[in-house]
Amino acid sequence: MDVSFEQPALARLITAEDREIPVSATLRYTTDDPLAVFVDFPAEAALDGEELSWTFARSLLDQGLRAPAGHGDVQIWPYGRTRTVLEFHSPYGLALVQFQASALRRFLLRTYEVVAAGQEDMAVVVERGLSALFDGV
Predict the structure, then answer these.
(1) Residue 89 CB contacts under 8 Å (≥ 6 apart), including other chains
(2) How is residue 69 annotated by DSSP?
(3) 96, 85 in Cβ contact below 8 A?
(4) Which of 21-30, 47-56, 108-117 has the largest mean confidence?
(5) pLDDT tens, 86-130?
(6) Among 9, 59, 4, which residue's Cα sits nearest to residue 36?
(7) Host domain of residue 15
(8) Structural domain tally of the chain?
(9) Distance from C-alpha of 72 to C-alpha of 78, rounded to nearest angstrom
(10) Which CATH number fits the domain that encloses residue 32?
(11) Which residues of 49-80 are buried (b: 16+ CB within 10 A; e: fewer)?
(12) Residue 68, C-beta contacts closer than 8 angstroms, at least 6 positions apart
């Protein structure tokens, strides 16, 4: 049985002028993709006016809450004692978003209650990946 849950979170989008704009976000997790976490932003937070969803490794979030982590499209690091920054890179630019670290930790702990670290069903993940790879052939 698949289990999914969402957690609303308030974030702050950091502009090029160092302004902080409040933005609502939704943190999501599903056992259908147990290695990943999702961060959804409403249309008003995106440059193109479309809802936006970022997917990245749950382990990256775990690491980024303690120390700088990530080298690709998503990078995460602690900012002071109470905040965490998520940096998202796309072909259209980059976005810096601050979250309360406690909200991200609470979300991460909930994911581990559903699927403990190291207990992810890799057969499902591999099957989905192979299916996506070969469905277009």
Answers:
(1) 72, 73, 74, 75
(2) B
(3) yes
(4) 21-30
(5) 999 988 888 999 999 999 999 999 999 988 877 666 655 556 666
(6) 59
(7) 4-135
(8) 1
(9) 17
(10) 2.30.31.20
(11) eeebebebebebbbebbeeebbeeebbbbbee
(12) 75, 76, 77, 78
